[in-house]
Amino acid sequence: KTAYEIRNCDWSSDVCSSDLGSQTGDYTVTGNVALERVIMANISPATVTLPSAPKDLGEVFVKRTDAQVTIDGNGKTIDGKATQILGVKYDGAHMIYTDAAGEWSFI
């Protein structure tokens, strides 16, 4: 399959292409919605920066389709680390922020 077909068809039925924001460079998650989905279609390494003041139980899903993507917790940890790397093509990360833990966790 092409990257486009994988990006738009290989996830669960509750995710469709109209829900996904495709980015080609560094991107900062807005934190304005309960679940933000981001496809990173960058051809050189890029960074996705999570919200600096995330909402409790806010979720972010990041999908890599080409070059390496670094996810930056923006002052909050992600499973104990300041950053996480999607190092393999087509890697994805689904994270949730909890006030109780004070960090992002992979789900």
Query: What is the molecular shape?
Result: globular
Main β-sheet: number of strands, strand sense, barrel status? Answer: 6 strands, mixed
Average pLDDT over all residues: 85
Number of helices: 1
β-strand number: 10
Ends distance: 26 Å
Along the chain, the helix and strand elements come as HEEEEEEEEEE
Structural class: mainly beta
Q: How big a fraction of the residues is strand?
A: 35-45%
Strand order of the largest sheet: 1-3-5-9-10-7
Query: Compute the gyration radius: what is it?
Result: 13 Å
Q: Level of helix content? A: under 10%
Poorly predicted regions are 1-19
Provide keyphrases for this structure.
7% helix; 107 residues; disordered N terminus; mainly beta
Briefly summarize what is shown:
With 107 residues, the chain is mainly beta. Helix content is 7%, strand content 39%.
Task: Describe the overall structure.
The chain is built from one helix and ten strands, in the order αββββββββββ. It has one helix spanning about 5-10, and strands spanning about 20-25, 25-30, 35-40, 45-50, 60-65, 70, 75-80, 85, 90-100, 105. The longest helix is centred in the first third of the chain and has 7 residues, at about 5-10.
Q: How are the SSEs placed, and which strands pair?
A:
Blueprint: H1 3-9, E1 21-23, E2 27-28, E3 35-40, E4 46-49, E5 59-64, E6 69-72, E7 77-78, E8 83-86, E9 92-98, E10 103-106
Parallel strand pairs: 1-3, 2-4, 3-5, 4-6, 7-10
Antiparallel strand pairs: 5-9, 6-8, 9-10
